[in-house]
Structures are given as structure tokens and as C-alpha cells.
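Apologies for my clumsy wording, but are you able to produce some protein sequence, whichever is easiest, and the C-alpha cells describing how it folds?
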Amino acid sequence: MNHIEKNGEYVGVVSKMGANGEGIIKENGCTVFVPFVLIGEKVRYKVLKVKGGIAFGKATEICAPAEERVRPKCKVYEKCGGCQLQHLKYKLQLALKSRIVKDCLSKIAFIDADVPACVRSDLEYGYRNKLQLPVRATEYGVTVGFFAQNSHRIVPISDCPIQPEWCGKIISAVKKYVSEYGVSAYDEKTESGIVKHVVVRDVSGKLIITVVANGDELPESDGLIRILREQFKVFSLYLNINKRNDNVILGEKFVRLYGKNKYAARDLGVKYEVGPESFVQINDGVRRRIYQDALKYSETDENTTVIDAYSGAGMLTAIFAKKSKKAIGVEIVKEAVNIADDLKKLNGLNGVMENVCAPCEEVLPEIMAKERKENSKCVLVLDPPRQGIDGKIIEAIKASVPDRIIYISCSPQTLSRDLGLIVGTLERKGDALVKSEVASGGYEIETIKTYDMFPQTKHVET
């Protein structure tokens, strides 16, 4: 029985780090999770929530700081919900992330794997090519910033260290625009006000700026263009119309107000265009390393068919199409498939690149069976969303047995589950996953690499 109470204050020593970058303290038979603390630190903390033998707390004093602690660069760190690890030396962030993946593989899938230190980002700060800023009407007037963790309360900011230097200029421009022209910000309670979000995408120094509005027009848009031209040489400005009062940032309709429709870019031999609706991984350097490694480990050649499941806008499909007999991308989002078709035309990949719009779990078994019969070599690339792959895909893998599987994941938990089922250390019994007596999946793990796509945060790519 634990003897820890909500709102109670305690002093303890952090014994380990959790999967979300928080410190773990053992207190009176209870496991307490406390963010923004490090292993070995003696901390004073207040308990915010108790549930069974688990509690969640907030550090009120670092009594004995660890040598690994550094001063965060962000002025609102611990208030903004974006970063969790700015207080930890970067080299140790990398070690922590690889350990999180290793622990998940062991605890969830019973896989004892060697997971080397995380591949570092070239940029520890200023690495993001995308910015999403909520703009709200508050008791203090128009507020521009980020949402606090698990809330819609805005933390006001003037800059963000994980964004490029243009971030501060964008925030300043938005504030000047609403102030000079008296443009209203959105109020979630009354569902009134115009400006809801500002979304910016950086394409090799050229900015695509989208103002999300609760209305069909953007008031004084010429004034905003003038303010932006004072700061930026090359940019496009879009209005996005979103009158919904929910968590969805972008509406369906975009209206171009200034600048080019799209901007061209090139990466790993593939030409592509980026517009306001495009999806591109937010860390250009790390994305490039992941794609290079995916190509290397696939061992694809002119006799290989590559099936790219959850292919998104087709960038990786196009990279494989240039190096293989054929690459087939499967994606459920129609807009993404349309972009992938444009990518195919732009790069002259007709005949070697095919894009299928459908749920992976519905069409992948048939595609894999067909390609396995017709080709001497077949590689399956899996790049699913956070929830991982469907059970039907696991069965399709077992039935068609692709020569190699490349799995790119943003969730160590679902990656571990899916790998356990693929290599056979896990099996389903009813609705439950249990440890297999004998690993019988027919596959062995050859390489595991982790990548720091999101420095200063708890997130890791594998």
C-alpha cells in the first residue's frame, strides 16, 4: 500500500528516466513521474495526481543538480508544451533516446537488440522548417505563442530556439499587423474573431505563410503583405478558411494572396514542389539521412520491386523508383496521392512509379502477393503513423514473405509491438499479445538505428 497523497510535498532522488523524458522517483511504494529532472538529482516536488501505485508530480526545487544539467535556451521552457529535454546535455539526449527504444523492444516485444547512440541532428536548435502559431484573444489582448501542454492556454512568446531565426520576425510581423489594423484574434469561447493560426513552411529560405481565419476574407491583407515585405525578400501569403471550433488547424480552402503558388526544391536526386498543403518532415538533414539509410539497407537494384506502404506525398517512393525496377506507393489520403502523382510527372517516373490511393490494410495483401509472384525480389517499406501497422499487414507479410522489410517509425511502443509480431517473439491469443515460446516469424532484425528528428524533445525516429 502506498502512502503518498495528492498535493503533498516530498523530497526524493531521481532513479531513472521515463519514456517521455520525465524523471522517475520511488516514494513510499509509489512510482512518481516528475518532468524536467535528471537521474541522480535530489528534488523537492509536489504531487499533482495519484492513481494506484502511480503518481505525477511537479518539481518545486532542484536541491542537488546533476552535472548533466544545462541551462535551457528557451525563456518559457517548462511552460510551453513543445520541449522536454532542453535541460539535458545534447549527447545525453541522444543516449536517452536510444535507450528508450531499446527498453521498449525488451519490455514490449521481448527483443534484446543492440541500439547504438541516436544519429544526431546537424542542428541542435533552429532545425524546424515548419512553424504553427496559435493566435487568440485573451484577457491581455491578442496573444501569439504556443499552447501549454495538454491545454488551449496560450503561452506568449517572442521567439522559439528550435525554430530558425525567421520565427521571431514572423511573430513580430503578426503582432504589428493585428495592432496597426485592429484585426481581431479568435476567441474559442465566443467563436468570434478572425485570425486563428499562422502556419509557415520554409523551403530553402523561401517562406510559405498561411493565415488561418475564421472568415472568408483576411482584413487589410495588403497591410500584412507590406509588413512581411519589410522582413522577407521571397515569400508567399495564403489565406486558409477554417470556421470550425475544434482542434483541426487547417480548413479545406486556401486562397493565394501574394507570391508564388509553390516553390521548387531538390533532395537525393528528386525534384519536388512545396505548397501550403504539402507535408515534408520538419528536419531536412535528419530526413535525408533516414531516406539514405532506407535506400542502403533495402539493397534494391534494377530487379527489385519496392512497395512503399503509408507513402504520403511520395518522396520516398520516388527515391526508390529511381533505383529499382518499380516502386509502388500506397496512401489513404487523396490529396497526398495527387501530390505523389505530380511528383511522378515532374521527375519523369511514369512506368516505374505507381501511386495507389487506398487503406494499406485493404490493398497491401493483394499487391504484395501479386508482386511477389511476378518479381524475383521484393522489398517492403513501412512508414506508418504513430498507431503502427494493421494486423492484416502482418498476415500479408507472413503470406508473401518480402525479401527485406524496412520499418520507419515515430513510436517506439508500436514499433516494438509490430516487430515482435513480424519476427515472432509475440503472438496473438484472442485480443491479447503474449510472448511466443519460440520465435517463428521467419525474419531476423539486421539493423536498428535511431535518429534525432526532434532535438530537445522526447520524440525519436527509428
